[in-house]
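testing teh design pipeline on a random one, pls ignore if ur not involved
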């Protein structure tokens, strides 16, 4: 599919016989070469241009894909990330590559200044986190390529994954209701999602401060497809606020201007406990406490983030104690929880199948990241509408878990069609399927490999 061609061309991919098989093989080769080109001695960069360091949740998705072709590298990816874990258990959202020149990314290590915080690792990192999708990823890597080495890797990672959970459910339970709060939209991974508009509006910032900095992203991507300068002014203000407290989490409610419970982060938290229970069984640890925590997280998610009136999950802004009304793809992600009650599963399927998201057994357009019918839906701007493979993949996994192979197949086809048409782009136009952002993006390649393998 070239830019401008509808992405609903899965029929071509479904084509039976040798031609169809050759197209799938070509997709696989493209994905592998993208991942190989982005490999950097002990980790994979999300993109050589836009994101030249190591990112936390990217590495989890990347490991899932690498498991299909280079399992040793999948474990290396996770080991490298967790080697940068802080003493308090937080896994930093960026691990900086010291070999890169200053200015290779903004905000870089000097801006984060994390080394002055208690318990920071020796190497430079950021001070915030990303969704804890690593335990489910480790489980999938092992399941895909089980071996003595994979069991050893699970044994190595298990205490670190447990510490990551402890950090999020302990220090980050700012609301006191059993969920983790995020202190920055970057922690959700969906940086400028409309989900953050209301809580971000309360963050004092002036876009003029951005004159003092040089944005790196807009040198490599169209500024109209990225967050605005005002968004960045607020991103910077939030880092400054958290950094001023040396990245401590005590008394955050009284001093930090952005505190939100995100459905994706907390669904990942619950899914991680389910994965840890399975990992515990393999390495001879006790799965019981993980099962208990998984059940409590699912219940807390329903108690605090479910809105029966909209039939979907919404972030809770802890500063107002209100749910954010925007309907985003974040609300669908709790489908990854195997113990999500039927009532919520049914409602989420209805939400996903509505014109807002257009999920179907044969999709005419790919899954967007925001309600297509919303007046502020923006098909080109990053997380405000475009289609991304990671959110599609999470929903796809949720559909498989909840036994909807028909819808899962439709979503899978539409994801494959996106890459077949535009390549391993970072994100895609949600109507035309045109490639946007980085043209050689690692998690797109990795999750494509995973989707290809389950066809
Ligand atoms: C994007 O976020 C970074 C900041 O963390 C950025 O915009 O510079 C997001 O898409 C995030 O989810 C992703 O992990 C990161 C690297 O791919 O890029």
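output:
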């Amino acid at each position: 599919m070239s830019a401008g061609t509808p992405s609903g061309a899965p029929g071509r991919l479904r084509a039976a016989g040798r031609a169809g098989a050759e197209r799938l093989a070509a997709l696989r080769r493209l994905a592998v070469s993208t991942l190989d080109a982005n490999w950097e001695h002990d980790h994979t960069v999300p993109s050589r241009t836009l994101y030249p360091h190591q990112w936390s949740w990217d590495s989890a998705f990347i490991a899932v894909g690498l498991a299909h072709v280079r399992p040793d590298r999948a474990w290396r990816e996770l080991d490298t990330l967790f080697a940068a874990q802080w003493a308090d258990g937080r896994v930093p959202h960026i691990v900086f590559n010291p070999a890169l020149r200053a200015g290779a990314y903004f905000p870089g290590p000097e801006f984060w200044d994390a080394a002055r915080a208690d318990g920071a690792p020796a190497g430079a990192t950021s001070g915030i986190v990303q969704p804890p999708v690593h335990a489910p990823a480790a489980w999938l890597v092992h399941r895909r390529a089980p071996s003595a080495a994979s069991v050893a890797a699970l044994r190595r990672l298990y205490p670190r994954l447990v510490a990551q959970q402890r950090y999020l459910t302990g220090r980050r339970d700012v609301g006191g209701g059993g969920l983790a709060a995020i202190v920055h939209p970057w922690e959700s991974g969906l940086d400028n999602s409309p989900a953050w508009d209301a809580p971000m509006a309360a963050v004092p910032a002036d876009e003029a401060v951005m004159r003092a900095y040089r944005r790196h992203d807009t040198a490599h991507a169209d500024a109209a497809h990225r967050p605005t300068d005002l968004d960045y002014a607020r991103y910077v203000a939030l880092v400054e606020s958290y950094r001023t407290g040396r990245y401590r989490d005590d008394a955050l409610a009284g001093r930090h201007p952005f505190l939100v419970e995100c459905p994706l982060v907390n669904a990942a938290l619950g899914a991680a406990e389910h994965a840890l229970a399975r990992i515990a069984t393999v390495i001879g640890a006790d799965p019981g406490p993980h099962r208990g925590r998984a059940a409590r997280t699912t219940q807390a998610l329903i108690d605090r983030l479910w809105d029966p009136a909209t039939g979907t999950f919404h972030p809770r802004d802890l500063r107002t104690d209100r749910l954010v009304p925007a309907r985003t793809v974040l609300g669908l992600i709790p489908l990854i929880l195997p113990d999500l009650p039927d009532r919520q599963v049914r409602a989420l399927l209805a939400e996903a199948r509505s014109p807002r998201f257009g999920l179907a057994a044969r999709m005419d357009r790919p899954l967007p990241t925001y309600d297509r019918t919303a007046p502020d839906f923006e098909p080109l701007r990053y997380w405000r509408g475009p289609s991304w493979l990671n959110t599609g993949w999470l929903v796809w996994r949720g559909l498989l878990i909840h036994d909807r192979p028909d819808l899962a197949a439709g979503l899978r086809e539409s994801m494959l069609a996106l890459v077949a048409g535009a390549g391993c782009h970072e994100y895609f136009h949600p109507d035309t399927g045109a490639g946007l952002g980085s043209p050689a993006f690692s998690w797109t390649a990795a999750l494509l490999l995973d989707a290809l393998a389950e066809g």
